[in-house]
Specification:
The structure holds two protein chains of two kinds.
Chain A (H helix, E strand, L loop, with lengths): L7 E4 L6 E4 L7 E3 L6 E3 L6 E4 L15 E4 L2 E13 L2 E10 L3 E8 L2 E8 L11 E4 L2 E20 L8 E9 L2 E7 L4 E9 L1 H7 L23 H25 L3 E10 L8 E2 L3 E3 L3 E9 L4 E11 L5 E15 L2 E7 L1 E9 L2 E11 L6 E9 L4 H30 L15
Antiparallel strand pairs in A: 1-2, 3-4, 3-12, 4-5, 6-7, 7-8, 7-12, 8-9, 9-10, 10-15, 11-12, 12-13, 13-14, 14-15, 16-25, 17-24, 18-24, 19-23, 19-25, 20-21, 20-24, 21-22
Chain B lengths: L1 H21 L3 H6 L14
The chains are: A mainly beta, B mainly alpha.
Chain lengths: 421, 45
C-alpha cells in the first residue's frame, strides 16, 4: 500500500479501467468510474464486491474537487445518493490526509457539514431528546436510508441497496444523525452551512434551489433574539425614566373650570369663558362632563390666543343612553370626555364654546375644566409600543419559521403542533 | 441589525423626552386637532 497522502492506482478487475484511491490505507471500497463496480481495496487482491455495468452519473460536486471549509482543505473522494422512499439526498465524502473524513450533505438545497462522533450517546434512536456536549437535541425524524447510487472511494464497504435505520435530532444549527444496522451504530454531528458558503468554497456557479425549512436551519435572529429583547427592555426602562421625570416636573395645574347650562335658545350662540393665562408653553387638557340622560352633546371648542388670534379647535362628543329590554337593563356611551391640545404657547386665552345637542335640545348642564402641563401616559405607551414592534415582528417570523420547520417532522413539539388542532 | 434597532430605540426615547418637555401629545398631533394661524374672531361677536 502507498504512503499516506499519495494516491494509488490499479486496474478495475471487472472492466480494466484505471481506479485511483486517495485515502490509501484507510479506504476499504472503491467504485470504478467506468463500470461502477464496487471493488474491495482493503488488500491488494482488489476483489469485486458488487459487479455493475452502470455509467457514472454527473454530480454537483465531482470527485477530486477541492475546497476549504472551517479552515481545512477538503477533497471530494466519494458520493452516495441516498433515499427514503421517493425522497433523495446527496452525501459527499470529503477527505484530508491530516483531518480524516467529513460528509457534506445536500438535501433540497440545504447543506450540512458532518463529522462522525466517536462517542456513545445513550438511547439515541429511541429517546425523544438526547444531550450532547451540554446541548439538547430534539428528535426530528426516523426513517430508513437506502443507498441508491455510489461513486468514488469509501472507508467502509458501501454498495447500492445497502439499508440502515436512521434518526435525526436537531438543535439548530446543529444536527445529530444516527445510522444503525445489525453490526454498528454510527452517530454524526452536523452543522448547517449556507448554500453561498458551499458555492464559494467549491466555486459552483449553479446551486439547487433551497426549498422549505431544513430540520436544523437557523431561525431568523438565531443567537441575537435574546439580545434584541434585552435591548428593547433597556430602552423601555429609559422611556420609563423619562416618563417618571416628566410626571414629577409637570405643573398639572388647573387653569379654569366652570358649569354651563344651555337650552334651545343657545343653539346658534357661541359661549366664551373669561380670559385666562397660560404661563409657559406646554399642553392643555380640556375635560368636559355632562349629566346626559338618553341624549347626546357635541361641543365645538376653540382655544383662542387673545394676542395672536391663533386658534386650537377641537370637537368633544358625548352620548349616554340607557333602558330596559328582555335581557334586563342596558346602558351605552359616556358622560365624560377629555382632549389634549399639544404645545400651546404662553399667553392669554379664551375658550369659545359652540354646543349642540339632541333634537329637543332641552336644557343641558355641562362642566368644563381646563388644565395645563398635564403629563400624558399616551406618549409613553406609544413609545413602548413602537419599541416592541420590531422584536414582536421578529418573534412572529421566528414562530412561523419554526412552524414550517416542524411541519416536516412526525415529532413536533406541542407549541408548533398546529396541524392536528 | 441590533445596532440599527438600538439607534431606532434611542431616537424614540429622545422623541418622548422632547415631546414631553414641550407638551406635545402624539395622538393629538396625529388627529390634527391643532389648527395653526387660523383667524378666530368668534369671541368678538
Amino acid at each position: 500500500m502507498g504512503s499516506k497522502g499519495k494516491p494509488q492506482t490499479f486496474a478495475c478487475p471487472a472492466c480494466g479501467g484505471t481506479v485511483t484511491i486517495k485515502a490509501v490505507g484507510i479506504t476499504t471500497s472503491a467504485i470504478c468510474m467506468y463500470c461502477s463496480s464496487v471493488i474491495d481495496v482493503a488488500n491488494e487482491n482488489y476483489q469485486i464486491i458488487k459487479k455493475a455495468n452502470e455509467k457514472m452519473r454527473k454530480t454537483l460536486l465531482e470527485l477530486g474537487v477541492r475546497g476549504r471549509l472551517f479552515g481545512v482543505d477538503w477533497e471530494v473522494i466519494g458520493y452516495t445518493d441516498k433515499k427514503d422512499g421517493s425522497y433523495h439526498w446527496d452525501e459527499y465524502l470529503l477527505y484530508n490526509p491530516y483531518y480524516g473524513f467529513r460528509f457534506l450533505v445536500q438535501n433540497q438545497g440545504h447543506w450540512n457539514f458532518i463529522k462522525v462522533l466517536k462517542k456513545d450517546i445513550p438511547d439515541i434512536g429511541d429517546a425523544n431528546e438526547v444531550w450532547v456536549n451540554g446541548k439538547k437535541y430534539q428528535l426530528f425524524l426516523k426513517g430508513e436510508a437506502v443507498v441508491d447510487y455510489v461513486k468514488g472511494e469509501f472507508h467502509w464497504r458501501v454498495k447500492k441497496g445497502e439499508r440502515v435505520d436512521a434518526a435525526d435530532y436537531v438543535a439548530p444549527p446543529s444536527l445529530l444523525s444516527m445510522e444503525k444496522n445489525a453490526e454498528e451504530i454510527i452517530v454524526s454531528l452536523g452543522e448547517y452551512l449556507k448554500p453561498q458558503e458551499v458555492a464559494s468554497t467549491f466555486k459552483l456557479k449553479e446551486m439547487p434551489d433551497r426549498t422549505g425549512v431544513a430540520s436544523n436551519q437557523p431561525a431568523p435572529y438565531q443567537g441575537a433574539f435574546l439580545k434584541l429583547w434585552i435591548v428593547a427592555g433597556v430602552f423601555i426602562a429609559f422611556a420609563t425614566m423619562v416618563q417618571n421625570m416628566t410626571v414629577k416636573a409637570s405643573d398639572n395645574a388647573d387653569v379654569y373650570s366652570s358649569q354651563f347650562q344651555v337650552d334651545s335658545t343657545d343653539r346658534d350662540k357661541t359661549l366664551s369663558t373669561p380670559s385666562f393665562f397660560i404661563p409657559k408653553k406646554n399642553n392643555v387638557l380640556i375635560q368636559s362632563g355632562s349629566n346626559l340622560d338618553n341624549d347626546w352633546l357635541e361641543l365645538h371648542l376653540s382655544l383662542v390666543n387673545e394676542e395672536t388670534n391663533k386658534e386650537y379647535a377641537i370637537v368633544q362628543a358625548m352620548e349616554y343612553y340607557h333602558g330596559q329590554d328582555i335581557d334586563g337593563p342596558w346602558a351605552e356611551g359616556k358622560q365624560y370626555t377629555e382632549t389634549y391640545i399639544s404645545s400651546v404657547p404662553s399667553g392669554n386665552y379664551r375658550l369659545l364654546i359652540d354646543a349642540d345637542s339632541g333634537t329637543s335640545f332641552r336644557g343641558i348642564n355641562f362642566a368644563l375644566r381646563i388644565m395645563r402641563d398635564v403629563p400624558s401616559g399616551l406618549n409613553y405607551w406609544i413609545t413602548v409600543l413602537m419599541i416592541l414592534v420590531y422584536p414582536g415582528l421578529v418573534m412572529l417570523r421566528r414562530w412561523s419559521f419554526e412552524n414550517k420547520r416542524w411541519s416536516e417532522s412526525d415529532y413536533t413539539p406541542a407549541i408548533y403542533n398546529l396541524r392536528n388542532e | 441589525m441590533l445596532r440599527i434597532f438600538a439607534i431606532y430605540c434611542t431616537v424614540l426615547v429622545i422623541l418622548l423626552a422632547v415631546a414631553n418637555r414641550n407638551g406635545y401629545v402624539f395622538t393629538s398631533m396625529l388627529t390634527g386637532s391643532q389648527k395653526a394661524d387660523k383667524a378666530a374672531n368668534h369671541y368678538h361677536k
